[in-house]
């Protein structure tokens, strides 16, 4: 069990989890570009819906109504290219736009257009999906199952760089600090935009989305890989930086 204990020789699970997360996030992102490019020009008009709601499933859906051009949510769809129903698309493109409809507000001013068709998700979400793939790939490249999520998360760094953190037992603080570095820029940009007259830019939305997605994809991959059974439920067999050892209280 030595190779499993130190995590250096057998990284099958880590790489497998990484590939799955990269495939899911990267695959959807790729389809988000392919779908509008492959559809007939002008199939998807300018949209403006709500996050976590189905707005454009049918011609009579919420998003296809006229809500006023000054509304906080939605707009007058009749003034932005007419109605749109993703259930009228072929199954592949319907999935892409249906998933975007459910998870993204799809505001046209915050989204890119390809071939005269608005993309299914906004630029912030484009960055998030790209970041998810990057974070998962990072863990797949260097990450190790080290019993706990925080130790697995930090394992992408060389052990020598982690010695001071382990000697001071600041592993949780280190992980939370890295996650905050990734999430705070997006949260600050989005909250400021929501609560003031400030309007972000699409390049900034992409960049803050990438940062947030990267730490989430990294953490998620570490969480999926952190398993005790590969150490025969013996924490003393986990090799950590600075010769630290896990103990069960």
Q: Estimate the helix proportion, in percent.
A: 40-55%
Strands across the major sheet, in which order?
Answer: 1-2
Main structural class? mainly alpha
Number of strands: 2
Biggest pleated sheet? 2 strands, antiparallel
Cα radius of gyration in angstroms: 22 Å
Uncertain segments are: 1-8
Beta percentage is: under 5%
Question: Which sequence of SSEs, written as H and E, runs from N to C?
Answer: HHHEEHHHHH
Summarize the topology.
Elements: H1 2-6, H2 12-38, H3 91-103, E1 113-114, E2 117-118, H4 123-142, H5 149-154, H6 159-167, H7 171-195, H8 202-225
Antiparallel strand pairs: 1-2
What does this protein structure show overall?
The protein has two domains: 2-24 and 125-243, no CATH class; 43-114, no CATH class. Helix 2 (12-38) packs antiparallel against helix 4 (123-142). With 249 residues, it is mainly α. The model is unreliable at 1-8 (pLDDT under 50). It has helices spanning 2-6, 12-38, 91-103, 123-142, 149-154, 159-167, 171-195, 202-225; strands spanning 113-114, 117-118. A hairpin with a 2-residue loop joins strand 1 and strand 2 (117-118). The protein has a two-stranded antiparallel sheet with strand order 1-2. The relative contact order is 0.16. The protein contains eight helices and two strands; from the N terminus they run H-H-H-E-E-H-H-H-H-H.
